[in-house]
Amino acid sequence: MSYSGFVPVPPGSEPLAGPPPLPPIPDQWAPQPGFEPVAPDEGTVMITPVAAPVEPEYDPELDGATVVVDRTPPTRWFLMLAEGIEVELPAADVVVGRNPTGSPEQPGVRVPDTGKTISKTHARLRRVDENWFVTDLNSTNGVLFFAPDGQEALLPAGVETLIQGDFILGTVRASLESRVGEPAVRAWAAQ
């Protein structure tokens, strides 16, 4: 007797090997401890429990808040001399004079004075927010302010005073001016 698609095994020979074994069940599909399969009722959908997701390893690069970048253009400050000379103030706390002694925290800023009425280390200029203060550092010719009535008033040495308008170092009239600098990030032209 023969069936279509079926080949009989000749007598005395071994039957052909069966299909290969199935691969092992991945762990995520393996029954969880304590799980007892129950025969479903007709029409019931069987849901196989899945292992809990594995937490990724900790990466310090992904941790923490995003750093906010200040893109506002920097404000630059200048000491404006009556002769039209501008002297940039590189920090919020500087020592000014003809040849001042400064430090990394308080840089020295040279102020040109052909008449040599400004002392080598004449005064300290310090900015707090948008306000500047001046302190005479025992200079020879002092720091003068203009009183509301227009008269000159000599600043006592060592006294920090708010600058409001023009002031005089030795005989050099000066004022302070701020300017907004170049933006920190420039737009790139399309190629």
TrEMBL record:
Region (Disordered): 1-28
Biased composition (Pro residues): 8-26
Gene3D superfamilies in UniProt: 2.60.200.20
Keywords from the UniProt entry: Phosphoprotein
Domain FHA: residue ranges: 94-145
InterPro entries, A to Z: FHA_dom, SMAD_FHA_dom_sf
Name this polypeptide is given: FHA domain-containing protein
